[in-house]
Amino acid sequence: MRNVFTSFIQLVLLVAIIALAGCGTSQQAYQGAFNSQTALTNNQKTYTQPAEPVFKIVKQTFIQQGFTVENADTKSGIIKAVRNMQDKDDPEISYNIHASADISDLGNSDTNVSMSASQQTILHRASTTWWKLLWILPIIPTGTEYQTLVIKEGNITDPQFYTDFFNTMTVSVTKYEQAVKIAAAKAAAKAEAERIAAEKLAAEKAAAAAKAAAEKAELDRIAAVKAAKLKAEADAKAAAESAAKAEAQRIAADKAAAEKAAVAKEVAEKEALRIAEELKKAEAEAAAAKQAVNKKKKIAKK
Q1: Quick check: 47 and 26 in contact, CB under 8 A?
Q2: pLDDT tens sequence across 7-54
Q3: Which residues make Cβ contacts (< 8 Å) with residue 117, sequence separation at least 6?
Q4: Could you tell me where the DSSP H helices lie in the chain?
Q5: Of 49, 89, 187, 258, which residue is least crowded by CB atoms under 10 Å?
Q6: If residue 102 lies in a helix (H) or strand (E), which one and from where to where?
């Protein structure tokens, strides 16, 4: 009971001291807000990568380090993240770390990353509530109260904090560059393979076209030779038929001429026979007439 009461008194005194300390320094704290001596160091770095991948890497770095990303605005380039960490030695103490990162495009594929962070030291304490005699002396425990107090708050100015962040960033950026190079190499290899395949396909098409053209030319030549041969044969046949026809016509003409000559000869021979018969008849008549004349002369002489 005594220890509990003592702890309670100590807690009240601690809160009072913190409040008094805050009152004594709050009026002077703002005066050094933009003082170069109080400016953060090692809290920014420039990368030779575009802003879009750097923004993703910053966000991934926060998440990999256990931060919860509360806001990530690609338009403004601002990322806000928070992480709660337990004190290694004191289970009643934890730390809330609020970090903000600004990713700014500098042009020419350069990007600047700036970071700031603040930390709250929080006290978590459980205390027993008592029923008090005459509202003063605790007699009977009635429950437990849990108290959460921010006992310290301020910006994180330790350069090592920011150095650790940017070291982790650099590792991720290096991995990103390697991934980009590997992707570029794969893309180049793929493009080269596609080029070779396209050239091979074009060569195969050209060879096939040349072969088809050669085969067509050969077929055309064979067809032309065949057509010429058929034409020559047809012409020869036509010439032979024409010669045969002419010969037949000649033979027919000769036959007709011979038949005509034979008819004419027969007619002439008949005419000659007729004439010969007529001459013979005339001679016979003349001989008969002469005999008759001679007979008359003989009669007349008697």
Answers
A1: no
A2: 545 555 555 555 544 544 444 555 555 655 556 888 999 999 999 999
A3: 97, 98, 99, 100, 155, 156, 161, 162
A4: 2-29, 51-64, 159-301
A5: 89
A6: strand 93-107
Assigned token pair, 154? 């301020």
Given a contact cutoff of 8 angstroms between Cβ atoms, the answer to whether 59 and 113 are in contact is no
**What is the rounded distance in angstroms from the CA atom of residue 250 to the CA atom of residue 26?**
146
By DSSP bridging, strand 110-133 and strand 137-155 are antiparallel
216-225: string of b/e by CB count within 10 Å (b at 16+)?
eeeeeeeeee
Backbone φ and ψ for 156, nearest 5 degrees, come out as -90, 115
pLDDT of 189-234, one tens digit each? 999 999 999 999 999 999 999 999 999 999 999 999 998 888 888 8
pTM equals 0.55
Rounded to whole angstroms, how far apart are CA atoms 289 and 291?
Answer: 5
pLDDT of residue 192: 93
Q: CA separation (Å) from 81 to 47, 91, 202?
A: 21, 24, 56
In degrees to the nearest 10, what's the CA dihedral of 226, 232, 238, 239?
-170
Give the CB-side neighbour count of residue 66, counting CA atoms within 13 A.
6
Query: In sequence order, what are the residues at sequence separation of 6 or more whose Cβ sits closer than 8 angstroms to the Cβ of residue 231?
Result: none
Non-local (6+) Cβ contacts of 94 within 8 A are: 84, 85, 86, 87, 121, 122, 124
Q: Which residues contact 83 (CB under 8 A, 6 or more apart)?
A: 65, 66, 67, 68, 96, 97, 99
d(CA 147, CA 128): 11
Average pLDDT value over all residues in the chain? 83
For residue 100, give every residue at least 6 positions away whose Cβ sits within 8 Å of its Cβ, in sequence order, or none: 78, 79, 80, 81, 115, 116, 117
